[in-house]
Amino acid sequence: MEKQHRNLIGYVLGFLVFVAGIPSLMWVVSGRQFPWAPGLAWMLIALVLVICGLALSIWSIVHMKLVGEGNPLDAYGHALAPRTKHLMVDGPYRFTRNPMLVGIYVYDIGVLLWLLSWWPLVVFAAEVILLTLQVRSEEKRLEKDFGEEYLEYKSRVPRYLSL
Question: What pTM did the predictor assign?
């Protein structure tokens, strides 16, 4: 029961921070009144990005749970939910070592396009900086946990995306 409780806390915390919290902060700093919507073209592009970003993040989380037998929430070296037992190298992890973050970034770019304001970009930039520091910390842990297997994976799959 303790493990399920930690899993639930991890998922709820991730939702509150990345799906609700950061976009809400972007909304607040944008100065937009509620409700507000951009023109139809911007709205459609933003919605496609939001949906695609969430879908990629959810796919990554489900894949990690089923294949890796763990959860994604490891903040700066502190496991907030049970860590994965297996290195993820397939599914969404064959394109990027951090598909959940790529999904969140795509989602946030959709929010930025919806808001059509420069101030939320500051929030997004701060998020990217903080999460890049987190990813670097996580990479060190993965090297310790999975050794040569992770180093080989790291050498062939980009941290985010290769363009």
Answer: 0.86
